[in-house]
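ASSEMBLY PREDICTION REQUEST
Request ID: AP-0331
Submitted by: J.K., bench scientist
Number of chains: two
Total residues: 225
Priority: normal
Notes: Please return the full assembly, not individual chains.
Input sequences:
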Amino acid sequence: GENVEQHPSTLSVQEGDSAVIKCTYSDSASNYFPWYKQELGKRPQLIIDIRSNVGEKKDQRIAVTLNKTAKHFSLHITETQPEDSAVYFCAAPLFKTIFGAGTRLFVKA
Amino acid sequence: NAGVTQTPKFQVLKTGQSMTLQCAQDMNHNSMYWYRQDPGMGLRLIYYSASEGTTDKGEVPNGYNVSRLNKREFSLRLESAAPSQTSVYFCASSSSARSLMNTEAFFGQGTRLTVV
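STATUS: Completed
Returned structure:
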């Protein structure tokens, strides 16, 4: 079945620095790769996604890159701000959506 | 447009009690899902429904049952609650006709369940 590994589990950065979170998936048939952000006590919400026919997608300070050959995709956050502090989840949906275990990002002011 | 609505928001049960978590979406989505999230953990799929009248097991279905009552509603039932079922439960929906294969998932606000 599908397996998704997400690293690191915790990431602490200084405000203004960049943060990178990586996900590795197992099923080569996956063709849609979303990233969700979950603030403390809130519901997960989509922040960016990418489809398999695209290598990179940007939306202001966040970007996602996809390497289908290596079966991994990454979330990049530039110029981090305290409000970026949250848990970030990747997913590699196929027949059953499997989420990564999450990365807790701390942005220190 | 309320999106995905879950009830209740909080619940405390005694071991062995039963209860049903309700979920409704008003986005005309085909697929609906139930996840559980334990403290410091990720989202684990309990059951999902790709269309009205169909349901399938996810990663952790034991101890739960579901009903896709109609296109809008997907309920999760705990027949005999156990302390191991203490968790936050999220319902989600997606326009995908199968799993969350290629479209955004919208989550409810969650139900915090404690079993004592």
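REVIEWER COMMENTS: Chain A touches chain B through 24 residues (CB under 8 Å).
SIGN-OFF: pending second reviewer
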